[in-house]
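PT: before anyone asks, these are the final sequences, not the draft ones from last week. 374 residues across everything. Please model them as a single complex and drop the result in this thread when it's through.
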Amino acid sequence: MPAPEKTTREAIIAAGRALVEQVGVDGLTMQAVAERVGVRAPSLYKRVRDRDELLSLVVAATVEDLTLRMDATSTVPDPRARLMAQAHALRAFAHEQPVGFSLVFAAHGAPRVEPSAVAGSVAPLLDAVTELTGPEHALDGARLLTAWANGFITMELGGTLRMGGDIDAAWRWGLDRIVSALDRPSA
Amino acid sequence: MPAPEKTTREAIIAAGRALVEQVGVDGLTMQAVAERVGVRAPSLYKRVRDRDELLSLVVAATVEDLTLRMDATSTVPDPRARLMAQAHALRAFAHEQPVGFSLVFAAHGAPRVEPSAVAGSVAPLLDAVTELTGPEHALDGARLLTAWANGFITMELGGTLRMGGDIDAAWRWGLDRIVSALDRPSA
DNA sequence: ACCTGAACACCGTTCAAGT
DNA sequence: ACCTGAACACCGTTCAAGT
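LR: through. Structure below.
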């Protein structure tokens, strides 16, 4: 007699993402996930190998989410404005999903997802930089921008930046400086 | 009858730092720490409140270590060269203690140490930037550099950068761009 | 005064037994 | 076929009893 399926892999991943944001990575327990999807903890092992795989799936889903957001910026025609929009989209995403963001970009141990997938999520940014700088230093330029944005956001989320001065202004100042450095080919 | 003290708080923290680098944050178990310092796990609670405090102490010690390294760069007279040396010192530290570095700068949840302590560790960098830019945009400039360096190193450690091209060259290219942007006052 | 074994709660995971 | 309770290992933590 086939037993009815009470949940899905997608529901489990979604529950994992919600838990991670609401109670932190340590709050991602198999029991808590099971309770959210209406099942007992052992049943989860029919859909995911173990907690570690579930965490990786959560990160992968977060990367996909980010990729969609970044792709949505392709409508902006001017490459400089588009670059700004992409940086803002990245920061907005991080503010919405701080824990997910840090899991994607601030990996502590071994990478949770394919580094290429993470790099792919910011690919539109590489396109915009290419239009600005030409192909020779496009990769270097994209790395300059993503590294700065990632670092700024991480420090902002961690509180390291929270000392004196307008953080939004500091973001804008830095972004302007970097985009300008990319824009005018002085090196 | 007074019982002999078999370990110290410092030894426990040192054991914690070693464990964290060798087996990751999850490997920092009270049992593993106890074994390293030659004591049983319950005895650790005479020196540290709980595992969470121990982890915070590990991070704090790492910040102190980094502060010493950064302070050592103050011998370089030219501010531009000093800034380069400081960036390199930061990166070298991260390569030596990748897990500790990520714990300090890539906090996942609530800050483990005073954000001001982390900011203080890179204070010499602020001084060099001030010499370069003048006081008006010194803070913004220091944030620009630290954010970039932190982001670059984090992505490097996480593998996100590990795709095509010389990473050292990308680091040098980015550092040169940023320092130049700070050096020549064009904005 | 610090150290220890025993004990408890909690979590990840497995598995035999249900439907 | 999937779901479940029971069971086990492991870890953090407490505590009474040792010295």
